[in-house]
Design a protein that fits this description.
There is one protein chain. Helix 8 packs antiparallel against helix 9 and helix 8 crosses helix 14. This protein has 15 helices and eight strands. It is globular and about 60 Å long. The relative contact order is 0.11. By secondary structure, the chain is an alpha/beta fold.
Length: 332
């Protein structure tokens, strides 16, 4: 029987475990905290996966890394970006020589590394790395609702193998060679989702939100292509698809942070309201701006989000600043 290992017992890691089991794979879901693992193993329910069925019995929830990795055809990495380096350092000696797949989205504070770059830096691996991204809310994947995503790897054989391993009648995967573009799109859309939450929370209307998403996508594409990504990636599932979902869907943690800020809550309270789940856009926002400045790409929307999160600009002032910028030709 084909085995799949997933690192991280958050909502997304657990949803992927449920998906794998429903496809017929034997799944090991590896967690770090014994209390969380014990609770999941006992209840077979993740509190963030609303409406999902119980975690199938063929998912083994464990803290034993050696046991989890044994015989795994692939390892899906679902640890938050900011915690990835430390957790990889702990687990690297035990990782099998099978594809290692980044499923978390963001940029590391300080280094500005994407998840696959952190993986390569910590483990020394250059082969067998991949990224899985796209418009996929964890709760809906766990419920078996139809979805589509992208699996990207520089090695076409790895991408093809992962596509076959993880695709099912409820999750259709497309393959790509553009790992950088897929990861930049996934990191940046979380920042824009905070802005979208602010727009909706301030009741600025549908016109404003449509303008925001369109111009934000232009920013993301400018940065991604300047870094070496393929333009088509940003028009696909990992780009515009994930952006639309995260910026408009009520299950979006990043959007909920924006909504909370618009209601007058502090950033601390907005994040606390997520109940322990991570809104990667909060940490990614200033890092994304640093990366853009390093390569000479203008990202005014991302800049305003970073300024709001740091307390330097109010949401109302940010809107005025964006709307009164110098007039120019549209470039997408």
């Amino acid at each position: 029987m084909t085995r799949l290992a997933i690192v991280g017992t958050g909502a997304w890691g657990t949803a992927l475990a449920v998906h794998g089991a429903n496809k017929g794979l034997d799944v090991a879901l590896l967690g770090r905290r014994p209390d969380v693992v014990a609770r999941l193993a006992e209840t077979r329910v993740h509190p963030a996966l609303q409406g999902a069925p119980p975690i199938p019995s063929r998912v083994k929830i464990t803290t034993n890394a050696r046991e989890a990795f044994e015989g795994a055809a692939a390892v899906l990495w679902s640890v938050s970006v900011q915690a990835t380096a430390k957790e990889l350092e702990r687990l690297a000696p035990l990782l099998p020589d099978t594809p290692l797949v980044a499923t978390s989205k963001g940029l590391e504070i300080g280094s500005r590394r994407r998840t696959t770059e952190i993986m390569s830096f910590v483990t020394g691996r250059t082969a067998g790395l991949a990224a899985l991204s796209g418009p996929t809310f964890a709760a809906e994947v766990a419920r078996g609702l139809p979805a589509a995503a992208v699996v990207a790897s520089a090695d076409p054989d790895v991408a093809t193998a992962l596509q076959a391993l993880l695709s099912s009648p409820t999750l259709r995967l497309y393959r790509s060679a553009d790992v950088l573009g897929v990861e930049i799109a996934g990191a940046a859309k979380n920042v824009v989702a905070i802005a979208a939450g602010l727009v909706d929370g301030l009741r600025l209307g549908h016109n404003t939100r449509a303008a925001l998403l369109t111009r934000a996508l232009a920013e993301i594409r400018r940065l991604g292509t300047r870094l070496g990504g393929t333009p088509e990636t940003f028009a696909g599932l990992a780009g515009v698809g994930d952006l639309i979902l995260t910026a408009t869907g009520d299950l979006s943690r990043n959007r909920r942070v924006g909504l909370a800020l618009a209601s007058g809550k502090s950033l601390t309270d907005a994040v606390a309201a997520l109940g322990g789940e991570v809104a990667e856009g909060v940490a990614t926002s200033p890092v994304l701006l640093e990366l853009a400045e390093k390569v000479g790409v203008e990202m005014p929307i991302a800049a305003m989000v970073a300024s709001i999160l740091s307390g330097r600009t109010t949401p109302t002032d940010a809107v005025r600043n964006l709307m009164t910028r110098a007039l120019k030709e549209e470039k997408v």
